[in-house]
Amino acid sequence: MICQDQPRERFVHLPTPLEPAPRLSEALGIDLLIKREDLAGLCVGGNKARLLEFAIGSLRGKGVDTLVAYASDQSNKLRDIAAVAARCGMRAVLLVPGDGHGGEPPQGNRLLFDILGAEVRVVAPGLDRAGVMAAQEQVRDECARAGRRAAVLDRMLDYGVDATIGYVDAAEELHAQLSGGPAPHSVFIAVGAGMTAAGLALGLKHLGSPARVVGVCISSPAEEVAPEIERHAARAAERLGIPTRLGAGDLTLIDDQAAIGYGTLTPPLVEVIRLFARLHGLVLDPVYNAKVARALVDEVATGGVPKGARVVFVNTGGSPATYNYAPLLAGGVAPGRPARASMAAG
Ligand SMILES: *Cc1c(COP(=O)(O)O)cnc(C)c1O
């Protein structure tokens, strides 16, 4: 086990299922398996649930009683931080830019923050990385003055390494589930900041898997995220003490849909959400996994994935955001205009 020496606290149900999808396989002409990270447990599953086992494992011995993080007001990361804080008897202070629900009652993940008992603070919209770090550090200092010990969960800090290690662990789990069967041609996964894809690709490379990892960029162009992925993988490999590193050829990045923007739901995405729902009973989140599914279907159509190939789709969760897009997803009507940017999730 690559990650066996890492501090870890158990919250989620592992291994997550690797599920055959016969009706989708038949429709697409491939042999599709879905890795159900959305069923990991904690609050409503997803990739953040698994990685928080390592993040909290690193923090628990240090007397931390408060978790501080910044993200969008539909963030899956913030929702799972709120959930894990509740599970551990900690406090969560969540910083979100602006009030994205325009005075209406909050929906989706933002509603769950409240139900889970997190303290939500609205900070100025449009902060750059330095501004985000400063806002988080301000909360940490404020906690210290009140005699509390806060940890900032930000990808620039240990959280970025823990997130990557979480998916090295997932890679090992997936590799074991695939052993004995036909070799997978490719593994499709969403790329936001890139820790999840970095960990998956690093783990599979380290294990000698023949599968091509295909990262589908959600909002940043490939040339921006590729060096980040290599950096995340290198930091994780260093902590794990393994010699494997990721290079340019180890991950295929597809960024056709990055330019439509974070959280923008277009008619081709609505179409693929309905396809997966109606042929597998699986509702993909509109922000991340709908784009991954779109890229997969398009790759099959253009021959990037050959007919009959065994393909793994890693469903990283994020379903609460669905409820924030009701006007575009309801009924059988053709979707109209793209969603407002403020419907963005994370
Ligand atoms: C955060 C998130 C991702 C992306 O993870 P990164 O490590 O930032 O690339 C993918 N899918 C869902 C549902 C997420 O919430």
Explain this structure to me?
The chain is an alpha/beta fold and 346 residues long. It has 2 domains: 18-46 and 158-339, Rossmann fold (3-Layer(aba) Sandwich); 55-152, Rossmann fold, CATH 3.40.50.1100. Helices cover 41% and strands 15% of the residues. It has 11 helices and 10 strands. The chain has helices spanning 22-28, 47-60, 76-88, 108-115, 129-145, 158-178, 195-206, 222-240, 267-280, 289-302, 326-329, and strands spanning 18-20, 31-36, 66-70, 91-97, 119-123, 150-152, 186-191, 212-217, 251-254, 310-315. The protein has a 6-stranded mixed sheet with strand order 1-2-10-7-8-9, sandwiched between helices. It has a 4-stranded parallel sheet with strand order 5-4-3-6, sandwiched between helices. Helix 1 packs across helix 9 (267-280). The chain is globular. The two termini are 30 Å apart. The model is unreliable at 337-346 (pLDDT under 50). Pyridoxal-5'-phosphate binds at residues 46-48, 76-77, 163, 190-197, 285, 288, 316-318.
Short synopsis of the structure:
This protein folds into two domains: 18-46 and 158-339, 3-Layer(aba) Sandwich (Rossmann fold), CATH 3.40.50.1100; 55-152, 3-Layer(aba) Sandwich (Rossmann fold).
H-E string: EHEHEHEHEHEHEHEHEHHEH
User: Helical amount among residues, as a percent range?
Assistant: 40-55%
CATH architecture of the largest domain: 3-Layer(aba) Sandwich
CATH topology of the largest domain: Rossmann fold
Count of helical regions = 11
Mean pLDDT score? 94
> How much of the residues is beta strand, in percent?
5-15%
Strand order, sheet with most strands: 1-2-10-7-8-9
Integer count of domains: 2
Low-confidence stretches: 337-346
